[in-house]
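= Tokenised fold =
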Amino acid sequence: MIVYTNTIKKFNNDIDEGTIAELVRKELEQRNVIVNNISEIRSWDNSLLYMKNVLNDESINQELHVAIEYQIPATSKRVDFIVSGIDENDKNHVVIIELKQWEQATRTSREDIVTTYLAGTHRAVTHPSYQAYSYAKTIENYNEYVQEEQIELHPCCYLHNYKEEYREELDNYLYHDIIKIAPMYLKRDIKKLREYISSYVKKSDQGKTLFRIEHGRIRPSKVLQDSLVSMIKGNKEFYMIDEQKVVFSTIKKLVELAIQKDEKYTVIVEGGPGTGKSVIAINLLAEFKSLMVNYVTKNAAPRNVYFAKMRQGNYKLNYVKNLFKGSGSYISTKNNQFDCLVVDEAHRLNQKSGLFMNLGENQIKEIINASKVSVFFIDEDQIVTTKDFGSINEIKKQAQLLGSTIFSGDDFKLTSQFRCNGSDGYIAFLDHILGIRETANYDGFDLDYDIKVFDNPSVMRSELKEKNTINNKARMIAGYCYEWETQKNNGPDVYDIELENDFKAKWNFNSTNTWAIDEDSFEQVGCIHTAQGLEFDYVGIIIGKDMILEDGKVVTDYTKRAKSDASLKGIKTNKNFELADRIIRNTYKTLLSRGQKGCYIYAEDEELRGYINKMIKRQGDKK
């Protein structure tokens, strides 16, 4: 998505007429991106005026094309400014410019990280050169036109307000490697920036390059489990962007310090579905593979899939077993035996371990005790059983008791969306329709995300099956409202889920631990326990009778869950109906956010189907 594009000459004219910020804002709103941030609007006025000063020069061809606010495919991130054209040999080039209004910043000892004053406080952020570079590499990864036509992308950054006295904070040996790749230009470097631009783009391409980038095919989003082996080998499969990079570089530094100083640290990283928690976790695993490090998750489903993928990559059985661990593996582990334990889906941790939940004392305490650096990736909105014990407060409590310094807060919150076609608005939309929380922008998300409501579950299955023939990355998943009859009797005429329109299906077989990637598992329906922690291209979600629409509101009914569903164990005895309601809503949010490209929905309750469909159509009416 390109919000604004024109020739430099016409861009300059829009600046002179004072209309540029309004043009950008209106175009964003037409695309369901609501901009109420006055500082963002002001930044367009200020930064784009400086870009006019750069470009309005005889050394630069005024017929070159520019673009403003290009949304990077499969993410919620936008590139500030682009200049495109061709060189003297008619080769296409694109210059990507990250614009900053900073007046000063401070270096850090963390890889590619600086601190500056943002939103009323000093924040750790990526160096502007790294930001420009990571955006360029992500575009290369996802845009087929850029790859196939070998369009050269040239990232740089322009800090037009930056004070010369603080130059050394950004332009020093700590950042020289990234600055070589993505040059940095400060307030006094306007001539150098002009030279950089004109060295690549000399002649107009009539806007063809930007048009093709805008309308070119987007490569399929990478699925983490498919990239795992390559990442462990040290290959760059995902370029960490903005807050992802801040978290990664901070943890990397803390591990170095913990080993050097024999100190103990606990890091709490918060992030909703699709914000890259698992990507950072696997990158840390790859970074520390020469150290004593484990990837820890209570969820068996992702652990089993990762295990299978690593074995397919010819890694030895013992190595893989020692790399991926369940959360109850540290009951008897000595203090600081590990350099780093990376705990994914920390909200799913239990208090005690073992089949009968009678082993150990406290999984969080045991993990922190076992490692110099313990990293907990957590989303309290993905708590889906009464046994889920992981919470930010409990992690902090145990860290303090064990003398582990805690790192948490704004610098460790992941907010950008890298699933659901990169739509932050879609996650807010789920929060609204599921009644999890009221959100200001619940009715705005990118309809390029393929979301449909079906009145006929058999039709949904049929359409989803077609998607699955592409690459085996589509699955049906349901709320646990149906008894698992086939666990005991898997006869050909025995089914677990029977719905209207002659829909019949079985739960995922207990003969496999890798339902999510098995070649012959599409006809089986997964549940929260086989899907959480994994992602697919498309998901078809069956919402059972535990969630209905009543008097215009989405309500839950825990009594409609299957009697064998252990996720609500103890609710009736303890009468904690508020927790039951939370678990049901969290479960469906987790399921509805598993799809990279699309989500198909069938709800047993007809009124709920109509409500969700109405809310989706509301998006189209705004376009």
Remarks:
- Residues 2-215 form one domain.
- DSSP finds 22 helices and 25 strands in the chain.
- The two ends are 14 Å apart (CA to CA).
- Residues 243-261 form the longest helix (19 residues).
